[in-house]
Structures are given as C-alpha cells and as structure tokens.
C-alpha cells in the first residue's frame, strides 16, 4: 500500500483529499503547513507528497525543494488554483511529477496519483562523485601540521577506503567528528550519506528508533513510519559519538547489526540488509569500561578493528598559530570586522596555555577575542583571563620538542630587547633574515607590539 502525505492549509480541502485517497486504497497522512510536511517527510517514509502551492509560511515550491533534498525517492505533485505556465515549468524543473489545477475531481486526483506512482522507478544509483583532488579536499576542516596531526592523517588515508569499523578516541573538543568526516570524505562512500548521532543524547527507546527506525504505533507518539539512520545512510557512513554511553541492552542490538548487517525497525517484524560503514567515537577508555562491566567486550572488539587516537591540543602546540589564524579569519568574516591577525604577545599567550578544552576551547576563545577586538589585531587584553594566568604544564620529564623550545627561546629573546629584531638576531647569533623566516614559520609576524598607550615599545636595558 502506497503512503501519501496531503498538504493543504484549508482544512476542508485537506480532509476531502485524504478521504478520497483512503477510499482508493492508499495510506494517507495530512499536514496543515509546509514546515510540518517537511518535518514529517524527514521523520517518515512517504511514496508521494500531494501539496498545495499557496501555503502560509513555507509555500509549495519550497516544500518541493525540501522534499526532493530530504527524500529523493518521494514523488511530489503540486496543486493550485492560481497556477501559470511559468509556475508549472518551474515545478517540473525542480522535480515535481505533476502540476494540477484546483479544483479537481477526486477521480482525477486518484488517476494522477496512480500514474505518478506507476512512473516512479527505483532511484538510479547516483554517479560516484569525483575523487578528491588532494588531501586538503578530503580533510577540509582539519587544521594542523604537527607530527601528531601528520601521523593521524596518514592513518586516515590508509584506512579510509576499507569497510572496517573505526573507533576514534580522544578528549572532548579534539575534533573526533571531523576525523570521522575525513574518513568518509576520503573513502569510496564520499558521494553517499554521512549521518552523525550522539549516543548520549537519546533515551534507550528513542536511540533504537533513531538508529533502526520504527513502524507506526510502535510506541506512544509513533504516528508515522520512520527510517532509521542506518537505512537512511545505506552505502554511506554512520558516525556514533559517545558510544561508551550506550546502554548495555542497546549495545547488544548494535552488536547484532555489526554481525549480520540487518536492521529491524522498532515495532516491525521484517529485517532488511543495509550497507553502512560504522565509525564510533568516545572520550573514555573503553578497555576500562569493559573491565568495569559497563561495555560489552565483544562489541568493543567489533568497534575497535581500527583504533584512531586524536591527540589533545597541548601535545601539538605547534598547531595553535595555524588554528588561531583559521578561526580568526572565519569569525572576522562572520562578524564583519576587519581583524587581520593576532599580535605577538597574544600569540605567545595562546601558545603558552595548556588548552584543557582543546580545539573547541581555542575556537571559542578566538571568537570572543574577535568580538572584543578594537583594532586590526587581537591583543592580550582581548583573551580570556584563564589563558593569561595559566601556563602550559610540561611532562614530568620536562621534555619539549626542539621546535617548541626554539620558539620559546626566540620569543623570550625578543621580549628582552623590546622586540628589536636586529638586537635579537645578534643575541641569537643568527641573521635577521633567518630570524624573520623562523618567526614566519611559528606564525608570528615579528612586528613590535604597541604599548597600551599606543606608542612604540622601548627596548629593555
């Protein structure tokens, strides 16, 4: 039995259409607004949407666009009493099957609906998107050139085009979902759906429905059939964040899916095979969770076929200048401010902080700094106090990379001579050209920071 959604803001017309189509043997739901209809299509599974064009709020053309985007296999028929040839052509170009003048007899509507459903064939396999032309295309959004980041991206490149499950670990705010997207973007599934869900955001029953779908009447509030993420992402990738928070009973169902590749909607009896690459993430130590009895050992081994760890920002301080400039450019553009960079003293503070909140904390800090900035550069006073008061803690052995030591030594020397590059170069026993080049590599422009009064700083004795 085909399922149809009737959309009309006139209750009498909506009801009449629904009655006529139900008598013709169709399963019918109704919506009074375009917004309600789009939400129902996203949450449910309809073969056809029959919508009026003139709706309050989102009109029929917008409904058409949204339905074709959310559910390409759903057919759309538009109805209007005020249509023109231009409207009809536009509707067809946007993907509508038919454009019907109102009023129409119930038999005529039924005939159009049946013809539309008969013409509908399974959507052809979308052509594979062109492979990314560079690693930058695949890893868009991942910023970093430190050794931990280079090693991470090399691993992602190696594992992306397999179907093995991936477990991404790392502290909160390190960008685990970005890594999951990078795996998808670098894989042969790049032209398919990438769906992300936070396992901790749903109660158990709703999480099962979110992943596997449900049938109408399966539980209170289940008024329509709904596809789950696994079915929606067929031939694509599903990213499950905070997987350690999943209840044990739900873990068993996820394990069964990984073993069989089959899904069964809540309230349904039939199973269906789906082809999905599963990537999970957690900020917890799953081996410890297994030992404590909070996580199934058999599921852990299924998920951790390929473990990927994202290093905290304090272990890749070299990336802070790159990330800071990236976020600054983004927020300056968004806010509409002509902020061009970060002053040297502010950058030193950023590089001297240990970032317990990782990249997310840095992003929020730069957004705040751009909002408060009164000149064309972010200065120390624009940064949160916690950054100015808290220095990075060295490992127990007091070991730092040579690059970090060099950067710190150069900045300390510049501060001692009031940011006089010529004197600093002499003390460092290098040429001013070499000093300029090293400052550029470290993301520091090397210009003397302005004193708070606005004058040039004086060299320290």
- CATH homologous superfamily placement of the largest domain: P-loop containing nucleotide triphosphate hydrolases
- Count, helices: 20
- Tell me the distance between the termini: 88 Å
Please tell me the CATH architecture of the largest domain by its name.
3-Layer(aba) Sandwich
Mean pLDDT, rounded to whole units? 82
- The level 1 CATH classification of the largest domain is Alpha Beta
Order of strands side by side in the largest beta sheet?
A: 2-1-3-4-5
For the sheet with most strands, the description reads: 5 strands, parallel
- The stretches of 5 or more residues where confidence is low (pLDDT under 50) are 122-136, 392-398, 449-461
In the CATH hierarchy, the third-tier topology of the largest domain is known as Rossmann fold
Rg over CA atoms, rounded to whole Å, is: 29 Å
Give helix % range: 40-55%
* Tally of distinct domains: 3
Total number of strands: 16
How much β-strand is present in the residues? 5-15%
What structural class is derived from the secondary structure elements? alpha/beta
Shape designation: elongated
Topology diagram in text:
Layout: E1 3-7, H1 11-23, E2 27-31, H2 34-43, E3 48-52, H3 60-70, E4 75-80, H4 85-93, E5 98-101, H5 106-119, H6 135-138, H7 147-159, E6 166-169, H8 176-185, E7 194-198, H9 204-212, E8 213-214, E9 226-227, H10 229-232, E10 237-241, H11 248-260, E11 262-263, E12 272-273, E13 277-282, H12 286-291, H13 297-303, E14 306-309, H14 320-335, E15 341-342, H15 344-351, H16 358-372, E16 377-378, H17 385-389, H18 402-416, H19 421-428, H20 432-441
Parallel strand pairs: 1-2, 1-3, 3-4, 4-5, 6-13, 6-14, 7-10, 10-13, 15-16
Antiparallel strand pairs: 8-9, 11-12
Helix pairs in contact: 1-5, 2-3, 14-16, 18-19, 19-20
